[in-house]
């Protein structure tokens, strides 16, 4: 078992199959010694666990259809999206052991207009990558609030990694 595969096993996490693209693109592209992933949604078994906007807990008077996704749930979804990005990376370079550095994480959070905690949500991806890769998982990052994401996903994550 490879080093990264062993680390994922220690964390109790299995690398998923690469999700089929939802449009005219590929999940990851190699350019030189970099891999760029497409935006990855938090699919588990081909399904989104939750949809909607991230925000503070909904008031009791808000209907279930308008309920917000909690920041802690969204943080977990950011980790799942990062895991899906790792699967896409492995699909183009063969082994995650070839990754030498997570260079950049870009995270998008479908946000309620009053929500400003996007960095905390995307920490789900950032902390996970450091757990998996150690020092090579430390990266630069953007955490951006947006009005809506594909399929009404609460989060989307892109990675850029270098490899040898």
Number of strands: 7
Q: What's the CATH C level? A: Alpha Beta
Which residue ranges are poorly predicted, with pLDDT under 50 across at least 5 consecutive positions?
Answer: 58-63
Oligomer: single chain
- Which series of helices and strands comes N to C? HEEEEHEHEE
N-end to C-end Cα span: 19 Å
Largest sheet: 5 strands, mixed
CATH superfamily: RutC-like
Q: Can you list the strand order of the major beta sheet?
A: 1-2-7-5-6
Do you know the CATH architecture?
2-Layer Sandwich
The percentage of residues in β strands lies in 15-25%
Structural class: alpha+beta
- Shape assignment: globular
Mean pLDDT across all residues, rounded?
Answer: 93
How many alpha or pi helices?
Answer: 3
As a percent range, the share of helical residues equals 25-40%
C-alpha Rg (nearest Å): 16 Å
Overall tally of structural domains: 1
What descriptors fit this protein?
two-stranded antiparallel ribbon; globular; 164 residues; 7 strands; 60s Ribosomal Protein L30, Chain: A; five-stranded mixed β-sheet; alpha+beta
Describe the 3D structure.
The model is unreliable at 58-63 (pLDDT under 50). The strands form two sheets. A five-stranded mixed β-sheet has the order 1-2-7-5-6, with helices on one face. It has a two-stranded antiparallel ribbon with strand order 3-4. With 164 residues, it is α+β, with helices and mostly antiparallel strands. It is built from three helices and seven strands; from the N terminus they run αββββαβαββ. Helix 2 packs across helix 3. It has one domain (3-163): RutC-like (60s Ribosomal Protein L30, Chain: A). The longest helix has 23 residues, at 71-93. The protein starts with a helix and ends with a strand.
């Amino acid at each position: 078992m490879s080093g990264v595969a062993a680390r994922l096993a220690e964390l109790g996490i299995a690398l998923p199959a690469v999700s089929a693209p939802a449009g005219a693109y590929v999940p990851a592209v190699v350019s030189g010694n970099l891999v760029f992933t497409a935006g990855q949604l938090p699919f588990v078994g081909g399904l989104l666990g939750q949809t909607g906007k991230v925000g503070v807990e909904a008031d009791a008077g808000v209907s279930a259809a308008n309920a917000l996704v909690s920041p802690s749930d969204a943080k977990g979804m950011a980790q799942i999206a990062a895991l899906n990005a790792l699967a896409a990376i492995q699909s183009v370079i063969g082994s995650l052991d070839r990754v030498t550095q997570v260079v950049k994480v870009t995270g998008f959070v479908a946000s309620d207009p009053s929500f400003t905690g996007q960095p905390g949500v995307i920490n789900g991806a950032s902390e996970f990558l450091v757990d998996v890769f150690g020092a090579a998982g430390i990266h630069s990052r953007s955490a951006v609030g947006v009005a809506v994401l594909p399929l009404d996903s609460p989060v989307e994550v892109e990675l850029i990694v270098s490899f040898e």
